[in-house]
């Protein structure tokens, strides 16, 4: 496969971030039955941050992390590196628990962006973090109408520091072709996902947490995490498996594994950067229904993502990040539509990963006090920061349950203990998700062609089918 540049595109290999920073040495698998105070299944940001905060709060705890491949194998080693304050489900939580509760959740997310920056600095994790905020642009009249609505909506959740820009002010920040406006929030940073997850795993291990890699958990039951190499028993078993959850016994329809794909360009020249602007290194997104997200990397490239083939039949996940040729081409087209002067820039690497999507698109964190089973996830596409809030909340829930601490502000947030029904069985799951994304793409195309100022009705239908509103 080649995409415009002189060299073929590397496809898969987990992600570009590993090609850049190297793979870690794999840790020893579990070797027979074992006991712990807390066992964490999954070595992504959720599992590792949870181990980190629990061990910091209670150094005497024996904590074991069980990871099927290696820490950072999942979305935490493949994402777009947008550390930002979005959380899936906030609006539904406002409906269920009231605006005030949802404002507290939003405030906690704003603080979480700073907490990740702070903790990484304190632990000496060099993850190329640059806090330039998040800029979301509109390129059609319909997108502009949605952008203004979105901006006002976010301000109503207490984001007084959010700014709305017109076409000229947007162009002063970044020259996206046809941009008619944008909204910027300071609550966002760009980072290198793999440097964060590798650094975090090393810090956690240094604190005395046991990490076993190449150790798939096949079943979770109260006080047991079962693997082919032995069972780890612990009063608390925390499931942090996000997009891979469907492979666990009894969890097939809990969270749907949704794909997201990315490409990264070759390094841009100074002239090319001059044609684009982007000096503020903001995380960049748009207001399309099938939206894109991008960052200017520390090594001078553009990493850009969006929805490829959204979902595989039967909740299958991926092959170490390989993605379809048509997805690579679709992402390249977005890049060139945004930045026409970059038409000749080569794509060097493409990959994909899975997100966890609950039936109502609401992220959750839960500890069932009667069984000691806990879980966090369903972040949809907003997990780089949310995983950290989930981890601090799991820490507080475990400490509350074990009598080591009282309830905290975090344990009272409205996403704690949320329950949702399961996804439909196949083929309805596959048909529903594919139908939804085909409809989003059609809605974007119609909005572009008609220059209408209202959101396409198609997109609203897709939202309803998906259970998003
Ligand atoms: C392409 C892509 C781009 C994204 N971009 C962004 C972004 O820019 N900003 C943002 O906020 N979010 C983004 N996300 C989402 C974000 O990356 C995730 O929400 C977040 O990393 C989830 O972390 P996690 O630890 O819960 O899950 P994961 O990182 O997926 O970790 C789960 C871990 O559990 C392990 N595991 C699974 N099952 C088992 C088992 N049975 N036994 C043992 N181990 C198991 C897996 O191997 C994996 O390492 C993106 C996701 C993808 C895929």
Automatic annotation (TrEMBL):
Q: Where are the transmembrane segments?
A: none
Q: Could you tell me which SUPFAM superfamilies the record lists for this protein? A: FAD/NAD(P)-binding domain (SSF51905)
Which residues belong to any copy of the FAD dependent oxidoreductase domain? 37-397
Among InterPro entries, the record links this protein to: FAD-dep_OxRdtase (IPR006076), FAD/NAD-bd_sf (IPR036188)
Q: Which Gene3D superfamilies match?
A: D-Amino Acid Oxidase, subunit A, domain 2 (3.30.9.10), FAD/NAD(P)-binding domain (3.50.50.60)
Name of the protein described by the UniProt record: FAD-binding oxidoreductase
What organism is the protein native to? Streptomyces cylindrosporus
